[in-house]
Write a structure and sequence with these properties.
It is built from eleven helices and 14 strands. It is an alpha/beta fold and 311 residues long. The chain has two domains: 12-229, P-loop containing nucleotide triphosphate hydrolases (Rossmann fold); 235-293, YebC, transcriptional regulation domain (Alpha-Beta Plaits, 2-Layer Sandwich), CATH 3.30.70.980. The strands form three sheets. It has a six-stranded mixed beta sheet with strand order 6-7-8-3-9-10, sandwiched between helices. A four-stranded antiparallel beta sheet has the order 2-1-4-5. It has a four-stranded antiparallel beta sheet with strand order 12-13-11-14, covered by helices on one side. A hairpin with a 2-residue loop joins β1 (12-23) and β2 (26-37). The chain is globular and about 75 Å long. The two termini are 43 Å apart. Mean pLDDT is 86; it is low at 306-311.
Length: 311
């Protein structure tokens, strides 16, 4: 807390400047500027083939950029990878495991390959990670017998083994049923509340909208827009009002009433609070009043003319 109203700037966990990647003559990522702060729930959006996965691979030192610069947890990349990657959990383009081994055996091997902690507590770390992704009761069958959803959960468990400060996930709900998607969303929110910064890449805009506090949308490797979800989802100018006195409301508001469906009205208004005050002062009982906002999908379509872009 400060005495002069100044709010301290949170440290950046990911920062890029002009980050660019070419494969031959094909430009995959085009001068991308990102600044993701500690504690954020950040959504990285774009259609398939937009450059999301390539960007994340560069941030994890798996691919070298053609131009530009990047920092991860304050360390320059790729030089600083060795010092900071132990603090990062990641799941990029699906988990890679030994198919003939069980999930537990794979996680123990993965833990042993990195600075996960003392050997004597390895079993505990593995069981904790499996429990967090709802696989605590999984048997010893080989990974080749797993469903796609189970493999995805196992990959997420591997990302959580080291209790990461930063979690970078590429399409983490791929292959999961609706219940599994909900559970992963709740888990990521819980991890974020505990202090983990979450960076989630997806082409499913509704998934990101439900979890993330800020987003960046890219298309064909270029930044289209970035900002908080609330800023991007600007009001449409429509307000949905539910009232047991719809006739009174219609008489009061006249042409401002755009639609009526029984006791629910859609009203044109840029001032929801003022609208509510007017209705209540006129004796109209209001049981629900919701200012409608654009969805992230609508934002994306507006900004990219995405009728030609597969989502």
């Amino acid at each position: 807390m400060t005495t002069n109203g100044w709010v301290p700037q949170l440290p950046s966990v990911i920062r890029t400047k002009g980050l660019t990647k070419r494969y031959g003559r094909r430009l995959v990522v085009d001068a991308l500027d990102l600044d993701i702060v500690e504690g954020d729930r950040f959504g990285f959006l774009g259609p398939n083939g937009s450059g999301k996965s390539t960007t994340l691979r560069m941030l994890l030192g798996l691919v070298f950029p053609t131009a530009g610069s990047a920092e991860l947890l304050g360390a320059p990349l790729p030089r600083g990878c060795k010092s900071v990657l132990p603090q990062v959990g990641s799941l990029i383009e699906g988990p890679a495991y030994y198919r003939h081994m069980s999930g537990r055996a794979n996680l123990r091997l993965f833990d042993a390959a990195g600075p996960g902690g003392p050997r004597r507590t390895r079993r505990e770390r593995v069981e904790t990670a499996l429990h967090r992704v709802r696989m605590g009761r999984v048997d010893e069958r080989p990974v080749r017998a797993y469903s796609l959803g189970m493999k995805q959960r196992l990959g997420l468990a591997g990302a959580l083994l080291r209790e990461p400060r930063l979690l970078v996930l590429d399409e983490p709900t791929n292959g999961l049923d609706p219940q599994g998607v909900h559970e992963v969303r709740e888990l990521l929110a819980e991890l974020n509340r505990e202090g983990t910064t979450v960076v989630l890449s997806s082409h499913l805009l509704s998934e990101v909208e439900a979890l993330c506090s800020s987003v960046a949308i890219i298309n064909a490797g270029r930044m289209v827009v970035s900002g908080s979800v609330d800023e991007l989802r600007s009001p449409t100018g429509d307000v949905h009002v539910r009232t047991p006195d719809p006739d009174m409301a219609v008489r009061l508001l006249g042409e401002k009433v755009l639609r009526r469906d029984a006791d629910q009205l859609t009203i044109a208004s840029d001032d929801p609070a003022g609208l509510n005050a007017s209705l209540v002062s006129a004796g109209v009982r209001v049981t629900e009043l919701v200012a409608q906002r654009r969805s992230l999908e609508e934002v994306f379509l507006d900004l990219t003319e995405a009728g030609e872009i597969p989502l």
